[in-house]
Model the fold of this input.
Amino acid sequence: MKLWIGLIFIFCFYEARAESLGVLLKKAYDSNPEVLAEVEAFNAEDSLTTVESWLGDPMIGVSTLDRGSRTTYGVISQKIRFPVKYFLKNKAQENKALAQRAKVQAKKFEVRKEVVATYYSIFSHQKIIQLTEANMQSVRDFSRVAERKYAAGKAPQSDSMKAHFELTRLELDLMRMKQEEENLQLKMRELLNDQSLSVLSLSGNDLSPPSVRLDGLSLTVEKMDELLREKSPRIQSQVYKLEEAKEKSALSKWEFAPDIQLQYQKRLSGQPEDSEIFSVGLEIPLWFWNKGAKASAARSQKTAQEYRLKSEINRLLTRIKDLKGKVNVGTKTLKIYRTSLIPQAQGAFNSSKAAYRANKTTFLDLLDSERSLFRVKMGFYQSLQQFVENLTALEAELGFSVSDIEKNSRGLK
Done:
């Protein structure tokens, strides 16, 4: 018996863990097609790093020398670029690979934002569905009270009709909310690339608003610029692209340096015996305007990338300031809901309910207080959903977490 109880406990614990936000995020990082595509793109660029720093393939052939008697030689030749060119091409490719690696991290943060926002959206919708169903039950109770009061001649028949109208309106809202919640479940399966993922049931979980630490973002523009260059994957990608452009610009100047052609010939037949020929050739940059045009293009590409980097930093600074403000407002809004609006609306509803039973208020006043309480509670969950969307968007732009959102959503009760 104890063994079965232990197995059931382990199974339930596993199920809770399987539905936790942390586990869903790990699965998304491992399975999301967009993330995997960026990873493979990085693997491709990283593989080319060695290629750019090594010699090209040698050439082999046969040559014939006719000096009254024919001599045939086997020929092998190897082109060797000026050594500095290998170094610069290698450094350019390394930076290209690093830029792609930063794109992998940026994509993971984008997927993280989508998974977390969808997770909290599912939670909010399920909570609102619960509220709607509870509200419908309350209206049914009101309707029965109204019918009894009508039978006793203490209330008009219109009270019962108003209750039925309110029930119909709530049923329509419930249908819409369930459809939206179903679409969110489908979106989560898409993000995790797992169509067999079981339906997430989060309404039994008390997801409190995540704690946020924004003190570290109160920096000067210069310090914020440094922070983004160090932490933000989007900025890091642009920085590495700039480094790549710089290496290519430097390489274009070294294109005027001569490449070397080595060649060795060994007699295969004919005279004289044991004849060997060694030759060394240097490339002459005779058509210099061609290389000059490439150097000019490389300089322009470097300058263009500098502007792109500056533009991305400016965009990100504006975006972060905007999202930081929204997160601060969201934190205050949720606090007002929990400490003020919800208790006040609940108190007003309880008073109206008691007053209606005692024939001290109208049914319309009771419905108004019921609707106010419902809207306030629904507003809290909608505000929580919007707060999390802004918070995860801020963290995606920054490239690091400023909240305890994943710890706060460890698993279901």
Observations:
- The chain has a mean pLDDT of 84.
- The radius of gyration is 35 Å.
- The longest helix spans residues 288-357.
- The chain is about 70% helix and 10% strand.
